[in-house]
Amino acid sequence: MPLRDHFSKPLANRRHWEGFHGQWPAMIVWALMRKLPTRYFAEPRVHPGGSAEIDIATFHEEDEGRAGNEGGNGANGGVATAVWSPPRPTLAVSADLPAVPEYEVRVFDAERQCRLVAAVEIVSPANKDRPEHRRGFVAKCAALLQNGVSVTIVDLVTTRNFNLYGDLLDLIGQADPSLGTAPSPLYAVACRWTKGGDSWLLETWSQTLTLGQPLPTLPLWLADDLSVPLELEASYEDTCRVLRLS
Question: Interhelix angle for 17-32 vs 232-242, to 10°?
Fold first, then answer.
């Protein structure tokens, strides 16, 4: 079945791309659970951006408890201490920290204290619309790789002509000759950082995506010597079928 353009007419007028991006991670998880060894499990994660929610009441309760226990010579026998006042900040500017949208699948190793071993990152338009968003997405992928997590990037966004895989390589001072001088904005790539003899190697499996053509199967690395097939086409079609996307 063909890859659709979820961001342009006519499909964009009939369906929201957010619905597809929200459903696809769940379908990938469903497919992976039939392939993963029993010690591994997968979970979808969807966070469209914005501030993280914090349970303020819990923090207030904790603060009140500390205030009762850390006071002067009270019932608990505490010793009075001087209140320390920090100096004025050396910089105070109005700024918004970029909230990186997340549409992803995470795979964990239950036998290693639920250690994260693999991540599938589905690129959204917001990941590509501003330089700071692109830097944030690429920095996140680089940090995962550096911590031994294999990373797969899938980019179906047709409205932003950037290739974040190329940006990731730029960040670590490398290049992929197959990208050419004008890298395609539609691609899927599996990456891992692995030990090769006495040095560390960045290994990638990159595929250009084309509208009207099937999606590829990429290796999803769980360990240095263990991978399972990430069949993007099957989960993509399952998602389109569930959402009634023709």
Answer: 130
